[in-house]
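Fill in residues.
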């Protein structure tokens, strides 16, 4: 999905008196900065209140992701997600104690962040414990909605929707970003015995699981990845017009996030589609150029 190791199998400890709301938001910002440089860079172009609100949403989502990705027995990880969900309900009830939930509760109250989308994301996190193969793209799409489109739904009230379609477009952008994550992390996921590439599409290109687990980059894999990358780019094209449905002060940050994430697809191509031994990322120089071109496009 989206590592910030946190022991969450027990109820969160009471918030230290000296840990102010601002400090809770700063902790969320640190999580965003440490775990997604592209997201953090993009968020810096939002107004202060919106910026830290999306940090709180990110920290909530990131922590759920880390719970299920850590090395622990399935029942322990599921128990930790249950505890995280209990913390979410406590936050909406005004009883948050964990610093992330203190910030999240404040953001939810200010902007009307929908609880159901947060619960859906946790449903997706549970799938990462129990499901490690997807037969078709339609199956994968349902998973992507839960773990990534929901993030778009969560942040849309913060960014400011100008019409009812804005949430739909934000969900589409989240889907595109999740497909990008999946393509970047094929090798890392394989080491966890997870395959997010649809099984029927792997079969169509004649690329078996054994080749994936062996880290084989051949003409079959390249063809498969080209197909997946073109789909991801199409998803970005479909989502991009939705930026105009957001409040003007949020548009540049979202446009920049889209372009930085889309740039990972080019990095995969530049690495010769080797997602087993090379990490695809957008270099700092390219990020700066992307930031400048995104500003011109706005």
């Amino acid at each position: 999905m989206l590592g910030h190791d946190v022991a969450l199998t027990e109820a969160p400890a009471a918030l230290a008196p000296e840990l102010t709301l601002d400090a809770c938001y700063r902790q969320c910002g640190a999580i965003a900065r440490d775990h997604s440089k592209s997201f953090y860079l993009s968020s810096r172009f939002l107004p202060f209140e919106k910026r830290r609100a999306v940090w709180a949403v990110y920290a909530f989502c990131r922590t759920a992701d880390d719970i299920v990705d850590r090395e622990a027995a399935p029942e322990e990880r599921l128990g930790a997600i249950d505890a995280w969900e209990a913390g979410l309900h406590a936050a909406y009830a005004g009883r948050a104690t964990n610093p992330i939930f203190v910030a999240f509760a404040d953001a939810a109250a200010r902007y009307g962040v929908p609880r159901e989308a947060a619960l859906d994301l946790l449903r997706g996190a549970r799938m990462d414990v129990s499901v490690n193969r997807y037969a078709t793209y339609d199956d994968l799409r349902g998973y992507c909605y839960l773990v990534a489109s929901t993030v778009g739904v969560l942040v849309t009230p913060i960014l400011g929707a100008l019409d009812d379609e804005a949430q739909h477009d934000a969900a589409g952008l989240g889907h595109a970003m999740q497909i990008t994550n999946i393509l970047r992390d094929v090798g890392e996921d394989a080491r966890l015995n997870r395959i997010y590439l649809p099984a029927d599409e792997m079969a169509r290109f004649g690329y078996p699981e054994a080749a994936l687990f062996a880290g084989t980059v051949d003409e079959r894999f390249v063809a498969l990845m080209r197909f997946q990358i073109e789909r991801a780019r199409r998803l970005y094209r479909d989502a991009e017009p939705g930026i105009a449905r957001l409040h003007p002060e949020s548009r540049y940050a979202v446009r920049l996030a889209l372009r930085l994430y889309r740039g990972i697809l080019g990095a995969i191509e530049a690495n010769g589609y080797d997602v087993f031994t090379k990490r695809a990322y957008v270099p700092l120089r390219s990020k700066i150029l992307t930031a400048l071109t995104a500003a011109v496009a706005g």
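The chain has 14 helices and no strands.
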